[in-house]
Amino acid sequence: MTPPLPGDGLLLFGFLEGVLGWGLSWLFSQNPSLAPVGLIPSIVLTWIGLTGGIIFVGVTYTAPTVRRNRVWLVWGGLNVAATVVNVAAIAGTLPPQLLTYAYWHPWFAVMGTGYLVTGLYNWQSPQIRPQERYVYIATGLVTLGLLAASTGPLLGFVTANVFVLGGVLQLAPIGHDVLADAVLIARAQ
User: Fold this and answer.
1) At residue 13, does pLDDT exceed 80?
2) Residue 1 falls within a domain, yes or no?
């Protein structure tokens, strides 16, 4: 793909970000000796780099219509907010009672909120077909549901599988959207 990238180009970068981020996070958690600066700092630094990378690509290499799209702006703001929370936790500036919720919880909140916004915003727009909207909405609800349940009955399950769940929750709706668009383009030719 060559610049300026369309929305699907940025989605593909988001997909790659998810594969790398959740994959490396899982790898570090399974074998902490691979984490170059310690387990949690390595995971946080991975996500800082990936978040910075996708924001850079979005601002620098996408079409103006993508850069001005409100949904992308929401995603950018949410990603920056989660990164700030992660950095504050690493820097020790958060109250101790919040540290438990300062690492993966913000990212689940980002995905849940971001996917709901993606699915619900500008419902009449043909840029996202109804089936894609339903996948985004369902993923947003499941993600926020897991986030809420992780403070209670599903704490052990979500915590033990957080990187696999995060990867699936990030990659499934993006993959569905890009694949649906590719099928549509192939049928049109």
Assistant:
1) yes
2) no
